[in-house]
Amino acid sequence: AEPPVSLPDGAVMIGGDTAHCRGVTTVRKGARANPGQATVRAAPSVHAPALRSVPQGAPVVVCETASEGFWTAVVYRTDISGVDPARIESACFFLYPVQTRQAYRGPCLAGWVQTRALVPLPLAGAAR
């Protein structure tokens, strides 16, 4: 059974006393129902509306987790062609700490994906 939702409104929050969104990861191969992509939802629940899909290999900025780590809040871009994963944080305006906890309202999109859909980015020069 899925753990209870801890953020009822589903907003991806940044700033305040919690760590600022940081760290870039990537989307792994999707489930059988959605191969090659991960479904982004409006809140951390399988019952929340699906917002869109993010393709396998797309870089995302990790913000926080909910429901005992089952869900991860991410910020991402839809135009991933030519997006350097090392620059996605600056592209989504994560350049300076945000003092007041608030919903993300930057130029990129935000939502929730199942944590198991994410994998660390390979290190530069690592063998594949």
Verbal overview:
The protein has 128 residues and is mainly beta. It contains one helix and nine strands; from the N terminus they run ββββββαβββ. The strands form three sheets. A five-stranded antiparallel sheet has the order 8-6-5-2-9, with no helix packed on it. Strands 1-7 form a two-stranded antiparallel sheet. Strands 3-4 form a two-stranded antiparallel sheet. The longest helix has 4 residues, at 88-91. The radius of gyration is 14 Å and the shape is globular. It starts with 12 loop residues before the first strand and ends in an 8-residue tail after the last strand. 28% of the residues are buried. The model is unreliable at 1-8 (pLDDT under 50).
What general outline do the C-alpha atoms trace?
Answer: globular
Order of helices and strands: EEEEEEHEEE
Work out the radius of gyration: 14 Å
The neighbouring-strand order within the major sheet is: 8-6-5-2-9
| Biggest sheet features | 5 strands, antiparallel
Catalogue the unreliable spans: 1-8
Share of residues in strands? 25-35%
The pLDDT mean sits at 78
Structural class: mainly beta
Question: What's this model, at a glance?
Answer:
The chain has 128 residues and is mainly beta.
Helices, strands, pairings?
Blueprint: E1 13-14, E2 24-27, E3 37-41, E4 50-55, E5 59-66, E6 71-76, H1 88-91, E7 102-103, E8 109-114, E9 118-120
Antiparallel strand pairs: 1-7, 2-5, 2-9, 3-4, 5-6, 6-8
Which features does this protein show?
128 residues; mainly beta; 5-stranded antiparallel sheet; two-stranded antiparallel sheet; 1 helix; 33% strand
